[in-house]
Every structure is written in C-alpha cells, then in structure tokens.
Write a structure and sequence with these properties.
The chain is α/β, with parallel strands linked by helices. Helix content is about 40%, strand content about 10%. The protein has one domain: Purple Acid Phosphatase, chain A, domain 2, CATH 3.60.21.10. The N and C termini lie close together (about 5 Å). Bound molecules: manganese (II) ion.
C-alpha cells in the first residue's frame, strides 16, 4: 500500500512520483497491478492543475479496480472550498474574502478548475470519505479536533460531513470550511491518543499541514512522512505546492 499526501494541483510532480514507483506507466495508465494507493485529499488549489489531478485519480481508480488493485481518496478541505465556490459564489461567508468565491480564491483557487468542474466530478468528490481505517490506522485529512463535533465514530463523522456537502445549508458549509482552519492539534500526544481512543486505530495518518511547517526544515528536502507525537501520528503532506518534490509513503 502506498499513500500520497496533499497534491494541490502539482500534476507533473504527481505523475513523476507515481511513475517512479511503477504505479503508472509512460502512457499514464495504471501499472500497479493489485497494489493499493490512497490519496490524503487536497487535490486542488494553490497549484495549476487541480482538475487534471482529479481526472487522473478518477481514471486510475477505475483502471486499478479492473485488475484487482485499488485507488482510494480521502476528502480534503480544498475540495469543499472549490465546491462552495461553485454552489454559492456570491453568498456571504466567514472567511477574509467575505464571499465563498472570494474565500476560495484567497485560498489558492484556480479559475480553470472551477470552470471545468462537471457534475461527474462533483458527485465523485462529495462521496469521498473523511475518515477511514486502513491497515489498523486512522486516516484523516486534517490534524484537527473539530471532527468530534460531527460524531464520535468514523461512520457518524462521514455521515454528518457527507450530509453537509450534499446540502445547500450555507451556514453549515461556512462552519465546516472555518473548522478546517485548525492545524496541529496532534502535536499534543495526549490529544492524539484521545482521538485514536475515540475513533479507533493505532496511529493517525494525516495531511493538511505541510511537514516543513512542523519541522522548520526546507520543503525541498521533504521526501518522507513525518512521524511525531510519540509515534502516534504520521504527517504525509510533503508541501508540494511550496517546493516539496512529493513522495509516496510505502507501508
Ligand atoms: Mn488541507
């Protein structure tokens, strides 16, 4: 099993990393056979080709499934941001831009991604899980505690957040997008331990906060996940949009 952190529109880097691991070939077709590949969310924004990344992941998901492999993806927070800009561009929102469209733009929104987004993309995106158990670990996009407010089990959280994203409840969307401004909650190992006790799993695997921001090392040097909180947490966000080369974590 391989895990890919936050891609943020870095299509060319993603292709290079996947080819380097033999998961796709020179024609960009799935060549990973029965291997499993999971993405941590945040496909879009801050980088030029977010929709290209989503299209690639959606296609590889189908190709892998045909040969007994698996491509899975978690929901990030930039996917809801993009969806909110599509649903209610001019409605007032709580971020610094004042509207959902302006807040998305200020968070690195790329006009071509919004323009190219189809119902098929939207349906795929809103169906992505927010929390998932894999290999005895708890995979979640954000290193944040706000998930507690949406439920005390993985199924409850996925259900509640899925309902928000399938609704036109502007206040609920605004609340959720604001919730994601939380970062770094698991630096406190006790908080990580309680999160795992609540939702299950022996380790938290997350993205959302680039490793270089936690370690203070240059983004260009980040080629492996960052293990912290007494080994309870694994940060997979290579900071690809701010100079990180991108990497796959092989379990
Ligand atoms: Mn994020």
């Amino acid at each position: 099993m391989y895990v890919m952190g936050d891609v943020h529109g870095q299509y060319a880097k993603l292709v290079g990393v996947l080819q380097g691991a033999g998961l796709i070939n020179e024609r960009l077709a799935w060549s990973g056979a029965t291997e499993h590949l999971w993405f941590m969310g945040d496909f879009v924004d801050r980088g030029p080709e977010g929709l290209g990344v989503i299209d690639l992941v959606m296609r590889l998901q189908g190709e892998a499934a045909q040969v007994g492999g698996l491509v899975g993806a978690l929901m990030g927070n930039h996917e809801p941001l993009l969806l909110s800009a599509r649903l209610f561009p001019d409605k007032p929102a709580g971020g610094p831009g004042g509207t959902f469209l302006k807040d998305w733009e200020m968070n690195g929104g790329v006009a071509a991604d919004l323009a190219g987004l189809t119902d098929r993309h939207v349906e795929w995106l809103v169906g992505l899980p927010h929390l998932v158990h894999l290999d005895g670990r708890l995979f979640v996009h954000a290193d944040a505690l706000f998930y507690y407010r949406y439920g005390r089990t993985v199924a409850e959280v996925n259900g509640a957040l899925g309902r928000v994203l399938r609704s036109d409840d502007v206040a609920a969307w605004d609340q959720l997008l604001g919730d994601y401004s939380e970062h770094g909650a698991f630096r406190d190992a006790a908080a990580a331990r309680e999160f795992l006790a609540t939702y299950g799993g022996r380790q938290i695997v997350h993205g959302h906060t680039p490793v270089h921001r936690m370690t203070g090392r240059p983004a260009g040097e980040v080629r492996a996940p960052y293990v912290y909180a007494e080994g309870l947490c694994i940060n997979t966000d290579g900071g690809m949009y701010s100079g990180g080369p991108g990497f796959l974590w092989a379990l």
